[in-house]
Amino acid sequence: MTSTWLDSPARYGRITRFLHWTIALLLAWQFLGMIFKVTLGRRHELTSLFASDHKAIGTVLMVLIALRALWALAQWRRRPRYPATWLGRAAGAGHMVLYLAMLYIPTVALMREYGRTGALVIWGVEVFGERAEAVPWLIAPASASHGLMGWALFTLILGHILMALVHQYHWRDQTLTRMAGRSADTGAG
Ligand code: HEM
């Protein structure tokens, strides 16, 4: 595999960037759907458009986020390092919280789907079949926290975007460029 696919200390590789932007797009879709649901109501056509596939897109996200976390671990020693300052450490901690929230939210939702009596069918494929009796301990974590943690993740992502813009336009330090496509080291992606 050529080095443009992998991360390097100067920039993120194609695989990291593909996973980052695909997840960003699908998360934006999920949040738009839920924002329309709470502001315009379930029956509005925008809610139908963006939220009717919430479970299916959430399940795809679960797979992509798990791959992203595994890929981040595999590339750990190659990728750009956080500066050894309090801001660098805060960025590292913030990214860790983002990963944990992104993994937690779809995981508990899928546990709830597995524990309830109805089947989970995604685009015609039965992921979990029906069961005779619900399993309360599989359902409880999502019922208590899926939505709440979802909105917490939304707030974290707004902070993440704000910091990326501060890096790019205030500190002008190439941080967004490293994830946005052009390589900071070669000028080619
Ligand atoms: C990273 C992926 C996901 C995110 C960011 C996300 C986010 C959210 C948010 C913000 C809400 C709104 C809570 C509210 O009404 O205030 C919600 C509701 C919900 N989510 Fe997710 N979710 C994800 C994945 C999933 C998955 C994988 C499933 C199931 C397979 C799922 C099932 C649900 C259900 C059933 C609701 C309640 C929807 C309704 O009120 O109609 N979610 N989610």
Structural summary, described in words:
It is a single chain. This protein has 189 residues and is mainly alpha-helical. It has one domain (14-180): Fumarate Reductase Cytochrome B subunit (Up-down Bundle), CATH 1.20.950. 67% of the residues lie in helices and 4% in strands. The chain contains six helices and two strands, in the order ααααββαα. It has helices at residues 14-40, 45-51, 54-74, 86-115, 136-171, 175-180; strands at residues 120-122, 125-128. A two-stranded antiparallel ribbon has the order 1-2. Strand 1 (120-122) and strand 2 (125-128) form a beta hairpin. Helix 1 packs antiparallel against helix 2, helix 1 packs antiparallel against helix 3 and helix 3 crosses helix 4 (86-115). It is globular and about 55 Å long. Mean pLDDT is 93; it is low at 184-189. Bound molecules: protoporphyrin IX containing FE. The site of protoporphyrin IX containing FE has 21 residues, from helix 1, helix 3, helix 4 and helix 5.
Question: How would you summarize this macromolecular structure in one to three sentences?
Answer:
Helix content is 67%, strand content 4%.
Q: How many DSSP-defined strands?
A: 2
The CATH class assignment is Mainly Alpha
CATH architecture: Up-down Bundle
Numbering strands along the chain, what is their spatial order in the largest sheet? 1-2
Please give the structural blueprint.
Blueprint lengths: L13 H27 L4 H7 L2 H21 L11 H30 L4 E3 L2 E4 L7 H36 L3 H6 L9
Antiparallel strand pairs: 1-2
The structure holds protoporphyrin IX containing FE (HEM).
Protoporphyrin IX containing FE binds next to helix 1, helix 3, helix 4 and helix 5.
